[in-house]
Structure formats: structure tokens, C-alpha cells
Write a structure and sequence with these properties.
Length: about 260
């Protein structure tokens, strides 16, 4: 699934949740998988997630202007490690003209080789009610992770080639996620650092670093989990007159997976 790419991660889902989530990019939660009962049928697994976040931050930048956002998605695991999925979030209508809704559609392939996990795919970021202009864009992603006991580290890359919606240029994103489960508890502590070079930085020089540190805990006996993270972004003269989009802040998450 997407890591640090919104729902992939990105990526989007906040960054701490993105690392713990199924793909996305995108920037998501830990889905509980439902497997079809018919053993003779295709090897297909379906999961869904929904969450309420105090601020939707994509690579450190708020896309809900510091306000609450509702998010959710559906993932379908296919045979041989392939998957497809979709994820959506509410937005602040005035945030860089994206409109009130983001819809991500993605597909890829993931596998595990002992303690190493890999994930590659492509994601389309769509803004169905955006204002005039081009906003939708496509990004390719890949990651490799290592798990040792309760600890996990993932390095990932996302690349959006030249597109009109990116001002006729491209965008590169590199990130490193790390997490560890606290023994004897349902708590996972995680950290994230990312680097953006290109159009999606909200800076004057096209470069920015984002970071987060946080924790997530499953609520025993329920599909719910609670999360909190400190999320920030640094760059050269961030384009943000009132400071809301790019100020460091604490993000709270209530999520459920099915």
C-alpha cells in the first residue's frame, strides 16, 4: 500500500499514519483484511478504512487549512501480490485551488522476501471540484522496508514526471520511515523524514523537508485506533501569508479499519 504518499502511502496518509498504513501513498490506517470464504475462488482480499483527522497534512503541508478532515478508502488485494485501491479526503476549498475533495486511485505490486518488503506502483491524484486550471497529476512510487522484531524501517521514493498540473515540471520525493511497537502494549511509536524537490513544495526554491514523530494505539476489542503526531515542514520562504498551511502542529487521528 502507499507509504508517505497520502494514502500510500503518500504520502498522505499525516505522515506517521502513512507509514503504518496500507499503501499510499497517500500520504492511511492499518486495514483489517476480509478474505473471501470460497477457497476455490480467486485469491482476493478486500479491506476498508475511515478516519477523522484534526488536520490533513500532505508531506508536512496542510491541505485542510488546519481544520478537521474526513478520510477513507478501499483496498483490493489481487493474486500474485498485485493490488488496486482508492482513497479520498475532504479539503479546504481555498487551499491552492484544489477544491473540497481529493480522490486518489492507485495500483501496484508488493511482496516480502524474508525480513525485506517491497512495494511499487502508480497513483493518480484527482480533484473533481477544483477551480479553473489543471490540478490532477500522476505519480510513480516505490519502497523497500526491513522488519526486525517489533521494529520496521522503510525507504521510499515517489516521482511525478512533467505535467501541466505541475507547472510543466516534475517532482521528486524521498522519505525514510521508522517505527517500533512497544512490547506488551498496543502502541506503536514512529518517526518520518522526507525531502521534496520540485513543484509540490510551497517554497520559492522548489525544495522542502518534512518530518513527524508520533504514536498510534489500537483500541482493544474494536476496529478503532487513536493516533497523535507532531508534523512539520521546513523550506526557503514558504509561500504561506498567514502561516496556517506550513506551520508545525500536532495532528490527532481517530480511525477504523474493516
Amino acid at each position: 500500500m502507499l507509504t508517505s504518499i497520502r494514502s500510500l502511502t503518500a504520502a498522505s496518509l499525516f505522515a506517521m499514519s502513512a507509514m503504518l498504513a496500507a499503501p499510499a501513498m497517500a500520504q492511511v490506517v492499518n486495514p483489517a483484511e476480509e478474505v473471501e470464504d470460497d477457497p476455490s475462488g480467486p485469491d482476493i482480499e478486500v479491506s476498508a478504512n475511515v478516519s477523522l483527522v484534526s488536520d490533513y497534512k500532505f508531506r508536512g503541508v496542510s491541505l485542510s487549512d488546519g481544520e478537521f478532515a474526513i478520510q477513507g478508502g478501499v483496498d483490493v488485494g489481487l493474486p500474485a501480490g498485485f493490488y488496486v485501491g482508492t482513497w479520498a479526503s475532504s479539503l479546504d476549498e481555498d487551499t491552492v485551488g484544489y477544491g473540497s475533495t481529493e480522490l486518489d486511485i492507485y495500483g501496484g505490486w508488493s511482496s516480502e522476501f524474508g525480513i525485506v518488503s517491497t512495494d511499487v506502483g502508480v497513483i493518480a491524484y484527482l480533484y473533481p471540484d477544483a477551480g479553473p486550471g489543471d490540478f490532477d497529476y500522476v505519480e510513480f512510487y516505490g519502497s523497500a522496508g526491513v522488519t526486525l522484531g517489533p521494529a520496521e524501517t522503510t525507504f521510499g521514493i515517489a516521482y511525478a514526471p512533467d505535467q501541466d498540473s505541475l507547472g510543466g515540471t516534475d517532482n521528486l520525493y524521498l522519505y525514510l520511515d521508522a517505527g517500533i511497537g512497544v512490547p506488551g502494549t498496543p502502541v506503536t511509536v514512529s518517526g518520518h523524514v522526507g525531502y521534496t524537490d520540485g513543484f509540490l513544495t510551497f517554497t520559492n526554491d522548489g525544495e522542502a523537508f518534512d518530518y513527524s514523530i508520533g504514536a498510534e494505539a489500537a483500541v482493544p476489542g474494536t476496529p478503532l485506533s487513536l493516533g497523535v503526531a507532531w508534523v512539520g515542514v521546513d523550506g526557503d520562504v514558504l509561500i504561506d501569508p498567514d502561516g496556517t498551511f506550513t506551520e508545525d502542529s500536532v495532528v490527532f487521528t481517530l480511525s477504523a479499519s474493516f
